[in-house]
Amino acid sequence: MSIPSSLLASESITFEGAIELTQSLLSFMDADRLLQADIQQAVTSLVKTQNGARGFFVTYLTDDGPEADHPSPGVVEALRSAPEIVAELLVKNLAMSAAMVVHHSRQQKEGMAADSARVQERSRNLIQILQMPACQTIASQMLESLQSGNGEYEKFFRRWGYDDEQKLAMGSAVRSAIG
């Protein structure tokens, strides 16, 4: 069995195209129609570009299926192939989902808070499985920005308008992921 070319991302894939490709990939995975080597090849093709990786994570981490709760060896090895892109997106997804749990809880939108908590847990789990030095570095930079109000990630926090309670949740989530 070889991987369908429709499951391989091009270098010029758009964010939207990566979402569609990841949805197709997850359907094949749910139907157990791919070997781990095929999964690894498909995910590797996605995470080597920023658009591909963003589309992959937004789809993979929010999917209703169980795959992201117990990442397959093919997914794990593929994510390790692009540590710079993958690490930053995972740490940001972890932090943003923690902030969104706070936001949705305030709005009394428990279903959305639960969805954000699931993304948070999946992101934390992947960070711990991957054990990439880049995740540690980015997490440390993010924690420094949270603590000092300056640094590498201060613009990121300001752009999204996170308040003190959200930043506290973000810091707690990031610390729990990196030990």
Give your account of this protein's structure.
This protein has helices spanning 15-30, 36-47, 50-60, 73-80, 83-106, 110-130, 133-148, 154-160, 164-178. It has 179 residues and is mainly alpha-helical. Helix 5 (83-106) packs across helix 7 and helix 5 crosses helix 9 (164-178). The mean pLDDT is 96.
Low-confidence stretches: none
Distance between the termini: 40 Å
* Helical run tally: 9
Q: Mean pLDDT, rounded to whole units?
A: 96
Task: Tell me which oligomeric state these chains represent.
Answer: single chain
Secondary structure: elements and pairs:
Blueprint: H1 15-30, H2 36-47, H3 50-60, H4 73-80, H5 83-106, H6 110-130, H7 133-148, H8 154-160, H9 164-178
Helix pairs in contact: 1-2, 1-3, 2-3, 2-4, 3-5, 5-6, 5-7, 5-9, 6-9, 7-9
How would you sum up this structure in a few lines?
This protein is an all-alpha fold and 179 residues long. It has helices spanning 15-30, 36-47, 50-60, 73-80, 83-106, 110-130, 133-148, 154-160, 164-178.
